[in-house]
Amino acid sequence: MDKRKRWKMYAFVWICTAILVATVAVKGSFAEELVKIGYVDLRVALNESDAGKAAKAELETLIKTKQVAIDEKGKNVEKLKVELEKQSSVLSGDAKKAKEDEIERLVRDYQRLVQDSQGEVKKKEDKYTETIIKELRVIVDQIGKEEGYSLILENVEGIILYSNKGLDLTERVLKRYNEMKAKEKK
């Protein structure tokens, strides 16, 4: 577990402990009014939102396009390797060296294409994810203020092991986000 995840877990435990102590210290209905908690799974909201699904489809199209170019370049490399094997006995030393150099250049081009393609896909995926998560956080903030929540947590990698389902705001955040994006399109 990296330091950031460990820090988040420690912070979560301390927050929960502080809330528990505050709730126990305050008696009766005042405690219920004092603390209103919810949580959201932003990864679920990201993947199930209309914008998230559209981004995923766009990324899949980009991946397929890049894969076609990668496969084509790979076939060219293999074709030249086969030609070199067949002709190696009849080629002069200089001609053989020239073919080997060409194959090495094509292999480098192929590897660069693979790396560039992976980098481009990753960069786009990160951009989409960052944009959608920022927008989802705005929705979470709105719900928190409108409905008087004391605390809304993010359920990161299943950190919340058990809770009353009424505390899960993911579907409400998702619904409001999809409605907001639909209005933007009009």
Question: What key phrases describe this protein's structure?
Answer:
2 strands; mainly alpha; about 5% strand; about 190 residues; Protein Binding, DinI Protein, Chain A; 6 helices; elongated; two-stranded parallel ribbon; single chain; about 75% helix
Descriptive account of the structure:
By secondary structure, the chain is mostly helical. The chain folds into two domains: 1-35; 36-185, Protein Binding, DinI Protein, Chain A. It contains six helices and two strands; from the N terminus they run ααβαααβα. Strands 1-2 form a two-stranded parallel sheet. The chain starts with a helix and ends with a helix. The model has no long low-confidence stretch (mean pLDDT 85).
The proportion of strand residues reads under 5%
- Structural class, by secondary structure, is mainly alpha
Termini Cα gap: 44 Å
Summarize the biggest pleated sheet.
2 strands, parallel
> How many helices?
6
Which CATH first-tier class of the largest domain would you pick? Alpha Beta
Runs in which pLDDT lies below 50 for 5 or more consecutive residues are: none
Instruction: Give the total of beta strands.
Output: 2
Question: Order of helices and strands, N to C?
Answer: HHEHHHEH
pLDDT averaged residue by residue: 85
Fold blueprint:
Elements: H1 3-25, H2 29-34, E1 37-40, H3 42-48, H4 50-87, H5 93-146, E2 151-154, H6 170-185
Parallel strand pairs: 1-2
Helix pairs in contact: 3-4, 3-5, 3-6, 4-5, 5-6
